[in-house]
């Protein structure tokens, strides 16, 4: 399998606080990797560094063989690295269809067109397709404010997918979604992921969700990767059970996880 | 060499005046996150109140300098505190939680209203209250003449600056205000009466504006529009120094004051230009002013 | 190119005004010209507002447009009105392209204050320029239009015709612009900059283009005001004038390309009477109306139209 993402010695310090320390991870094309860890363990810091939101203090990141450290989200997006957000990042006062049309025009590098409407027939068609796939087509012409949290999560992920990425980082896709909805939401998302052949890095608190949808797990504790391997192996690890899965410690977020 | 002295003297006199004008603005912004466009109008209100009270006093044949100062202080504090209370309780309170930019527009509306209120109350003919300024006299440093009144303004400015510092850093209320600045929700949850603190802060800020106007009244002719002119100067000072910071306002005032004095003594035609050029230059290198904190972005 | 309904209506209204103007008294024609010119500057404010920015310094570009007309006639010997307007656009665009590099780094009140500061810099320079009449300003030369020299009493109508044509062209363009990729990208930036960046769109570039365009449109408004009024002075750059533009923008709302025109017309007409009837209460009226709009019609008077439409259907 070809390698798509590799980090070496990736670290991040906030003053004296170590948010991430010496993270060495290699991910191959097509892998679905779960990232677990208690709050403040460094998951989001890791994701934020990989997606260019947070500059690493040390270490290197390579995407698709070339170094990406220091690149902003915009460049990474262009290289094929997209992300969704724990709190969906959407254009609340715009219709759902326009949220998608803007993403599509950006993906076509046509974001500076001044005369041609953003809603071209082709974009509307593409938007309708993904709305249908995500099962949120009934919100098509509503403002995002009219959508419930689950639908917003799906729209957020749909927008990330419209950039034609090769790798997708999902930041807690089921947080804030009710228990009953979680599995339908994840089924929808994973189906879309499979169809597009995406590599996925997937931060999640819910171990049942992790177990069901990923093939490999990175377990984080106090800023470090304490275990990296197949699902069963990681979840059976004593240290992981103690520090990550044993009890769901819910300590206040300290590193800007929100 | 003489020019250098003149620049330094004029610069610091002007700087202390600028600090008086800007202090209230920055206090209100620092605590409440409201950039009060109507601050200039409070300055004008203070000037009108002081000028008409002084006019009445001197028309009665009064000639005591200390009474004149007391009149300035009382009239400015009264009108500042009362207008501050009315504006905060009557209007701003209904709007809390809105965008900073919307609050700016709301205070712009207040400015428009106050401008005309002042015209309706005091008319459009100028008010003069030069007596205290003249009575203070002047003295010479070499060939430069310095008015003692200006020195008094300087002293007042220092006193107010220290007072604000003491209030915010050393008193119990200052501690509460800093907790509000740090995190409003948490302070509220901890039982701080944020609304009351806001009312007090706004009244104090407004009063500072009115005091600035009051002490300026003897130096200028009080006419409609002085507030509108002053507010942009105050903006330049607080933005240069960093919005919401008292130290910033002081440093900003000194920088702007010296820059203006330099311009007046060397290139008078650039006087207004230089003030904003200083501000723009600072912002190019320090986007949030010298002592301003960059707003954290949140995902 | 197929024209949609809004575009047909805009053209229709422009033609109707052009015809009615032939039978209207001079003062009304003049007021209309001023209203249209003002609306163009307000249009720039609206373009910025759609991107989430409030400019308290759009008077800068208004003034540049005006002074370009004045100076072009006086020092370059240009008399053709269109060339003068074009000169204003060029000068303004160059200035905006430089300022835009700095301005696009700022949001919210910082953008508002910095735009205010830049317009006050121009004001400060003009007030101290004795060669240009300081605070009094100076008169604009008699102008021609494409070889036609307006005779006595024709200048007002000619100015209106020119303003109408320019405003129509700009309105048609902006109507499409607002719905285009970049137009929507502006609204997207207002809504959520983080997401815009993660879509692969540079928010600085979008804001930059929008800022420069808004400035150019504002300059046309300033140039037309100068041509119609025959006079320019530094108050064009004073910040309270920019405040009026913000007022009109909020009055109309950002919902439709026609809104600034309607709001500017109401503003100009009411001012004509208010300044005579209650000269010391005009600003107070503005302030109170502004508060009422913010409280009760946050999307401007245009929302009244759309609400009615919704109720009818």
Helix and strand run of chain A? EEEHEEHEHHHEHEHEEHH
Uncertain parts of chain A: 247-258
Structural class by secondary-structure content of chain C: mainly alpha
Largest sheet of chain C: 2 strands, antiparallel
Strand content of chain C: under 5%
Instruction: Give the N-terminus to C-terminus distance of chain C in angstroms.
Output: 29 Å
What is the H/E string of chain C?
HHHHHEHHHHEHHHH
Spatial ordering of strands, largest sheet of chain C? 1-2
How many domain units of chain C?
1
Shape, principal axes of CA atoms of chain C: globular
Helix/strand/pairing class of chain A, anyone? alpha/beta
Biggest sheet strand order of chain A reads: 6-7-8-3-9-10
Q: Return the average pLDDT of chain A rounded to an integer.
A: 82
Count of discrete alpha- or pi-helical segments spanning 4 or more residues of chain A? 9
Count of distinct strands of chain A: 10
Protein name (chain B): Amino acid/amide ABC transporter membrane protein 1, HAAT family
Main location (chain B): membrane
Transmembrane segments (chain B): 12-35, 42-59, 65-88, 100-122, 151-168, 200-224, 230-258, 270-296
Subcellular location (chain B): Cell inner membrane
């Amino acid at each position: 399998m070809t390698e798509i993402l590799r980090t070496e010695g990736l670290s991040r310090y906030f003053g004296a606080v170590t948010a991430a320390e010496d993270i060495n991870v290699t991910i191959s094309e097509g892998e679905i990797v779960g990232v677990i860890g208690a709050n403040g363990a460094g998951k989001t810091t890791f994701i934020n560094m990989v997606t260019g939101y947070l500059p690493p203090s040390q270490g290197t990141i390579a995407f698709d063989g070339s170094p990406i450290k220091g690149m902003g989200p915009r460049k990474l997006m262009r290289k094929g690295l997209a992300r969704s957000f724990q709190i969906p990042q959407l254009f609340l006062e715009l219709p759902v269809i326009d949220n998608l049309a803007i993403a599509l025009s950006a993906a076509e590098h046509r974001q500076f067109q001044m005369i041609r409407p953003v809603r071209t027939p082709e974009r509307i068609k593409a938007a309708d397709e993904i709305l249908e796939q995500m099962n949120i087509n009934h919100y098509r012409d509503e403002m995002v404010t009219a959508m419930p949290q689950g639908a917003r999560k799906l729209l957020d992920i749909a927008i990330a997918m419209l950039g034609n990425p090769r790798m997708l980082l999902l930041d807690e896709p089921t947080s804030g979604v009710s228990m009953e909805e979680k599995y339908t939401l994840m089924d929808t998302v994973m189906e879309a992921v499979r169809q597009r052949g995406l590599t996925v890095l997937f931060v999640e608190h819910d171990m049942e969700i992790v177990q069901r949808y990923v093939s490999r797990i990175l377990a984080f504790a106090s800023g470090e990767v304490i275990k990296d391997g197949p699902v069963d192996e990681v979840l059976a690890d004593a240290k992981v059970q103690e520090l990550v899965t044993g009890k769901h410690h819910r300590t206040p977020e300290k590193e800007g996880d929100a | 060499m003489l020019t250098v002295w003149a620049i330094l003297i004029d610069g610091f006199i002007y700087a202390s005046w600028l600090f008086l004008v800007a202090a209230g603005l920055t206090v209100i912004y620092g605590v409440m996150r409201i950039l009060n466009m109507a601050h200039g109008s409070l300055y004008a209100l203070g000037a009108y109140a002081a000028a008409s009270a002084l006019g009445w006093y001197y028309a009665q044949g009064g000639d005591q300098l200390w009474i004149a100062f007391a009149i300035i202080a009382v009239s400015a504090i009264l009108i500042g505190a009362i207008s501050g209370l009315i504006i905060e309780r009557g209007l701003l309170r209904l709007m809390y939680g809105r965008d900073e930019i919307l609050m700016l527009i709301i205070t712009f509306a207040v400015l428009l209203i106050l401008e005309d209120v002042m015209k309706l109350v005091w008319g459009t003919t100028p008010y003069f209250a030069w007596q205290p300024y003249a009575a203070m006299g002047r003295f010479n440093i070499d060939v430069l003449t310095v008015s003692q009144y200006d020195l008094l303004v300087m002293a007042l400015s220092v006193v107010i600056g220290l007072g604000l510092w003491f209030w915010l850093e050393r008193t119990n209320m200052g501690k509460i205000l800093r907790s509000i600045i740090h995190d409003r929700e948490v302070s509220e949850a901890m039982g701080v009466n944020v609304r009351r603190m806001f009312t007090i802060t706004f009244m104090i800020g407004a009063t500072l504006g009115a005091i600035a106007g009051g002490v300026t009244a003897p130096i200028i002719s009080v006419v409609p529009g002085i507030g509108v002119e002053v507010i942009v100067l105050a903006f330049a000072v607080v933005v240069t120094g960093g919005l919401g910071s008292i130290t910033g306002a002081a440093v900003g005032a000194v920088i702007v004051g010296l820059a203006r004095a330099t311009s007046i003594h060397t290139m008078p035609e650039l006087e207004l230009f230089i003030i904003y050029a200083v501000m723009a230059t600072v912002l190019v290198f320090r986007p949030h002013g010298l002592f301003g904190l960059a707003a954290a972005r949140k995902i | 190119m197929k024209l949609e309904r809004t575009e047909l209506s805009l053209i229709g209204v422009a033609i109707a005004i052009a015809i009615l103007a032939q039978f209207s008294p001079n003062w009304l024609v003049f007021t209309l010209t001023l209203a249209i010119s003002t609306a163009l500057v307000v249009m720039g404010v609206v373009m910025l507002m759609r991107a989430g920015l409030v400019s308290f310094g759009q008077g800068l570009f208004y003034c540049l447009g005006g002074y370009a007309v004045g100076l072009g006639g006086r020092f370059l010997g240009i008399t053709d009105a269109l060339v003068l307007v074009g000169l204003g656009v060029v000068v303004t665009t160059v200035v905006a392209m430089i300022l835009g590099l700095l301005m696009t780094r700022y949001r919210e009140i910082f953008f508002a204050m910095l735009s205010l500061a830049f317009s006050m810099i121009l004001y400060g320079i003009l007030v101290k320029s004795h060669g240009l009449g300081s605070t009094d300003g100076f008169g604009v030369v008699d102008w021609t239009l494409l070889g036609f020299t307006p005779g006595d009493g024709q200048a007002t109508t000619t100015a209106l015709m020119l303003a109408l044509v320019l405003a129509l062209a700009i309105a048609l363009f902006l109507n499409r612009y607002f719905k285009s990729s970049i137009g929507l990208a502006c609204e997207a930036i207002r809504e959520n900059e983080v997401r815009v960046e993660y879509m692969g769109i540079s928010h600085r570039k979008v804001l930059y283009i929008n800022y420069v365009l808004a400035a150019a449109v504002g300059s046309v408004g300033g140039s037309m005001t100068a041509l119609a009024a025959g006079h320019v002075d530094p108050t064009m750059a004073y910040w309270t004038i920019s405040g009026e533009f913000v007022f009109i923008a909020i009055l109309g709302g950002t919902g439709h390309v026609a809104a600034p025109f309607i709001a500017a017309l109401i503003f100009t007409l009411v001012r004509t009477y208010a300044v005579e009837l209650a000269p010391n209460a005009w600003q107070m009226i503005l302030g109170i109306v502004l508060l009422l709009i913010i409280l009760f019609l946050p999307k401007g008077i245009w929302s009244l139209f759309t609400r009615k439409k919704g109720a009818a259907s």
